[in-house]
Design a protein that fits this description.
alpha+beta, Elongation Factor Tu (Ef-tu), domain 3, OB fold (Dihydrolipoamide Acetyltransferase, E2P), Helix Hairpins, 6-stranded antiparallel barrel, 5 helices, rod-shaped
C-alpha cells in the first residue's frame, strides 16, 4: 500500500506537465509578436526615411579635400640669399618666403637710371640745337639775298662788257679801234659773262643751303615735338628703368595669400633659374571637396545646392557645410593618360563617377582646419 501513488496526486500529474508547455508557447508567441512589430517598425522607418529623407539626399564617401594651391616660382634668376620658411609653417599674405641675391638686379637698375639721364640730356641738347638751326635758316636767307645782289652787279658788268664789245667790233671794221683794244673788250666781256654765271650758281647754292638748313631744323623739331616725357627715347629709357626696378623687387618673393608651406625644395646658396618651382602655398581657409558621385546619383544634383560633410580626421562630431559650385566636365577615366577602350568586343560596363565640387565655409575651416587630400563623407540635399 505504501508503494502505490496517492489517487489525488496521480490525477493531477498530467495538468502539471501541460502547464510549462503552454507557458513556453505563450512566451514564444509574445516574442514573435514583438519581433514582428519591431521588423514592421524598422521597415516603416526605413520606408519613411527613404521617401522623406533618402530621396532628398545623395551621399558618398569617395570625397577628398582639395585647394587651388600657389606654386612659388621666381621670376628672376640668381643665387638664393635667404629662405625664411619651412614645410608646415603657416604664413600670411605678404610674408617674405625667400630672397635672391639682388646685386645683379641693382647694377642693372643703376645702368638703366644712367641711360634715362643720358636720354633726358640728349633731349635738352636737341632742343637747344633747334635755336641754332633756326638761326642758320635765317642766315641762309641772307646768303640768298647777298647772292642775288652779286648777280645784279654781275649782270650790270656783263651788260656793259657786251655793249663795249659790240661798239668796238663795229668800229674795228673801219680801223678806228686797234686790235689790242678789241682783244681787251673781248676778254672783259668773257670775264663778265663768267662772273654772271658764278653769281647765278651762287644763288642756286644759297637756296640749296637754305633748304638744307630748313630740313635740319624740321628734323630737330620732330625730335623734340611734345614734352620730354613724351619723347620716344626718354620713354624707352624710362621703361627699361621700370623693368630693372621690377626685377629688383622680384628678388624678394612673398606669400600671395594666407596658407601653409608645402614641398619646399630650395636651400640657401642654391642658384635657381626663373620659373623653377621652389615651394607651394596651400590656402587652408579656401578649400573645397571633390565628391565623386556615381552617375546614377547625379540626376537631381545642381549648382547651388547645400551639402553636409564630415572628415575622417575629426569624425562625425564636426560637421562642415558647403555649397555645390560645379560638376566636372568629364569622368576621371575620360581624362586618363590611357583612356578606357570601350569600343572592344570584351567590353564590361563599369559604373562611372563624376566629380562634384563643393566649396566649404571659410569660417568652419578656420575653426577646424583641413589639409589637401583628406577623406570626407559628403551628403548633398537635392530636394530643394
Amino acid at each position: 500500500m505504501a508503494d502505490q501513488p496517492h489517487p489525488e496526486l496521480a490525477a493531477s500529474s498530467p495538468v502539471t506537465e501541460e502547464a510549462p508547455q503552454r507557458t513556453f508557447a505563450e512566451r514564444r508567441k509574445r516574442w514573435l509578436t514583438i519581433l514582428a512589430a519591431v521588423v514592421l517598425g524598422v521597415a516603416l522607418l526605413v520606408t519613411l526615411y527613404h521617401f522623406l529623407i533618402g530621396v532628398r539626399h545623395v551621399s558618398t564617401d569617395n570625397a577628398y579635400v582639395g585647394a587651388d594651391t600657389a606654386q612659388i616660382t621666381p621670376l628672376v634668376a640668381g643665387a638664393v640669399q635667404s629662405v625664411r620658411v619651412a614645410n608646415t609653417q603657416v604664413v600670411h599674405q605678404g610674408d617674405i618666403l625667400l630672397t635672391i641675391d639682388p646685386s645683379d638686379a641693382r647694377i642693372a637698375e643703376e645702368r638703366a637710371a644712367a641711360d634715362l639721364a643720358q636720354a633726358e640730356r640728349e633731349f635738352l641738347q636737341t632742343r637747344a640745337t633747334g635755336g641754332a638751326l633756326q638761326a642758320q635758316v635765317g642766315a641762309r636767307a641772307s646768303d640768298i639775298a647777298r647772292a642775288q645782289a652779286e648777280m645784279v652787279a654781275a649782270q650790270a658788268s656783263y651788260d656793259k662788257a657786251r655793249v663795249d664789245l659790240a661798239r668796238r667790233q663795229s668800229l674795228a671794221k673801219s680801223g678806228a679801234v686797234s686790235g689790242d683794244e678789241l682783244t681787251s673788250a673781248t676778254n672783259a666781256f668773257a670775264a663778265a659773262q663768267a662772273q654772271l654765271a658764278v653769281a647765278k650758281a651762287g644763288i642756286a647754292q644759297a637756296r640749296a643751303n637754305r633748304v638744307a638748313a630748313s630740313e635740319s631744323y624740321n628734323a630737330n623739331q620732330a625730335l623734340i615735338r611734345g614734352s620730354m616725357q613724351d619723347n620716344p627715347d626718354v620713354a624707352s629709357a624710362r621703361s627699361k628703368l621700370d623693368a630693372a626696378r621690377l626685377d629688383l623687387s622680384r628678388t624678394v618673393i612673398r606669400a600671395p595669400f594666407d596658407g601653409v608651406i608645402a614641398q619646399r625644395n630650395v636651400q640657401i646658396g642654391q642658384r635657381i633659374a626663373a620659373g623653377t618651382p621652389v615651394m607651394t602655398v596651400v590656402p587652408i581657409n579656401r578649400m573645397y571637396v571633390d565628391a565623386n558621385y556615381k552617375e546614377g546619383q547625379l540626376k537631381k544634383v545642381k549648382v547651388g545646392q547645400q551639402a553636409r560633410l564630415t572628415a575622417d580626421i575629426y569624425g562625425g562630431s564636426v560637421v562642415y557645410h558647403g555649397t555645390v559650385v560645379g560638376l566636372a566636365g568629364g569622368t576621371g577615366s575620360a581624362f586618363a593618360i590611357i583612356p578606357a577602350q570601350n569600343a572592344t568586343g570584351n567590353w564590361i560596363k563599369v559604373v562611372q563617377r563624376l566629380p562634384v565640387r563643393i566649396m566649404l565655409d571659410p569660417a568652419e575651416l578656420q575653426q577646424h582646419p583641413l589639409r589637401v587630400g583628406l577623406s570626407m563623407d559628403a551628403t548633398i540635399d537635392v530636394g530643394g
